[in-house]
Amino acid sequence: MKFACTLIAVKDIQASRDFYEKVLGQKVTLDLGANICFENRFAIQHDFAGLIGEDGIKTAYQCNDHELVFEEDDFDAFQGRLQQARGIIYLHKAKEYPWGQRVIRFYDPDFHIIEVGESMGSVFKKFYDKGMTVDEVAERTWHPVEFVRQYIT
Fold it and tell me: pTM for the whole thing?
């Protein structure tokens, strides 16, 4: 068995499509009207209750029990684009975690939490370019040396 994709329920399929394409730069691979698939095994679905065929099912929005996680190589450029987007509701602006990765969290139009983090490859390179050894980068970022080495050597 293999994992197929993550699907989230949305109220307004066009507003959600616009958000994921324009704000997060996702590319549509299949548009079936009420279901839109993006690259990276991610889909949005309008009328989720109708899709699964269960009367009385209630879709919960802003339940804050999960998030969609994206990584960005050019985190600074992404922050600039995000600041230009209208109507973004932030959980928090960019903050740096102890392992050196910067992350920002905000809501999509249906109040699903979106996390955009600086890609760890970028974090590794940032520290390496500042003069840290591969071993020092691995220790600083809490990643195995072999993993770090794949990105910076």
Answer: 0.91
